[in-house]
Amino acid sequence: MGVEIERKFLLAGDGWRGLVERSERMAQGYLVSGAAIAAGHAKCSVRVRLSGDKGWLNIKSATLGVERHEFEYPIPYADAEHLLHELSDGVLEKIRHHVMLDGTHVEIDEFLGDNAGLIVAEIELPSADAPYPTPSWLGIEVSEQSRYYNVNLVDRPFAQWSAAEREGKGGTAC
After folding, report:
1. Shortest CA distance to 130 belongs to which of 109, 111, 105?
2. Tell me, what CATH number does 74's domain have?
3. How many Cα atoms within 13 Å fall on the side-chain side of residue 24?
4. Which one of 21, 105, 106, 125 is most buried, by most CB atoms within 10 A?
5. 111 is in which domain, residue-wise?
6. What angle is formed at CA 5 by the lines to CA 30 and CA 12, rounded to 5 degrees?
7. Neighbours of 155 (CB within 10 A)
């Protein structure tokens, strides 16, 4: 069974930019959306993603926190493109930057479009209590705040957030 253990953080500076090993542009959409999850009509999100010349289908449990069930499968690019543009509830675009820090892989998502200005670091861990690096540019943890989940950024993008929400304060979006 697939389990993702991931912590999400806002960034407190640009010190990570000089550590980027590679970056990739991504477009993704949801076939089962945050609105369906929030209304109690779904137990999971179903995402389609285009990254480079590859397509992916992802199923992730609709639970809050650092540990969630996750399954991801490669699919033909043409299928992913069709699903994204014809069946998803909207398209979220971002640039994912890959950073290695003290042997730990950090993915930094720099969002585009209506989510421009939002930059979130994600650190996948082997267990929920595993240690991880805490450089000065790593800001507050937002793993428990559902508004930072990509599935919710499609329905309620960063451009619609209040000033308090933009600073990592306030309630959840869903």
Report:
1. 105
2. 2.40.320.10
3. 12
4. 106
5. 3-166
6. 85
7. 19
